[in-house]
Amino acid sequence: MGASTTTSKGQTTIPKQVRDAMGIKDGTPLTWTLENGELKVRARTRRLEDFVAMVPPNGAHATVEDMNRAIGEAVTERMRRAASR
């Protein structure tokens, strides 16, 4: 999909084709991880407004129990991912 080199300061340019495909714009946060000898880069391209737009304005309301369950599931998933690195 593209290739780049690093500068003496360790900087690199993400190829335009990759930036366009991933929706990467100026200031987009990137997460770099090493998994099994491979470098993986993830772009955080979603904003809070994107998530708010997914919820219908008059949709069902979540209970505190629903929110606690969702938080617990997210924490469990995050810990599972961290343990697999």
What is the compact description of this entry?
With 85 residues, this protein is an alpha+beta fold. It has helices at residues 16-22, 48-54, 64-83, and strands at residues 30-35, 38-43.
Distance between the termini: 25 Å
Query: Taking Cα atoms only, what radius of gyration do you get, to the nearest Å?
Result: 18 Å
Number of helices: 3
Regions with little confidence, pLDDT below 50 for 5+ residues: none
- Please summarize the sheet with the most strands: 2 strands, antiparallel
Tell me the overall shape.
flat
Helices and strands, in order, run as: HEEHH
Which class of secondary structure composition applies to the elements? alpha+beta
Strand order of the largest sheet: 1-2
- The helical percent reads 40-55%
The number of E-state strands comes to 2
Mean pLDDT: 87
Strand content: 5-15%
Tally of structural domains:
1
SSE layout and pairing:
Blueprint (H helix, E strand, L loop, with lengths): L15 H7 L7 E6 L2 E6 L4 H7 L9 H20 L2
Antiparallel strand pairs: 1-2
Based on the model shown, name its key terms.
alpha+beta, two-stranded antiparallel ribbon, flat, 85 residues, single chain, 40% helix
